[in-house]
Amino acid sequence: MYLEIVSPEATIFSSEVDSVVVPGVNGEFEMLKDHAPIVSLLKEGTIRIHTHTQSHLVFDELHASVVPHNDNDKILTVKINSGTIEMKDNKVIVLAD
Question: Signal peptide position in this chain (predicted)?
Answer without folding.
Answer: none
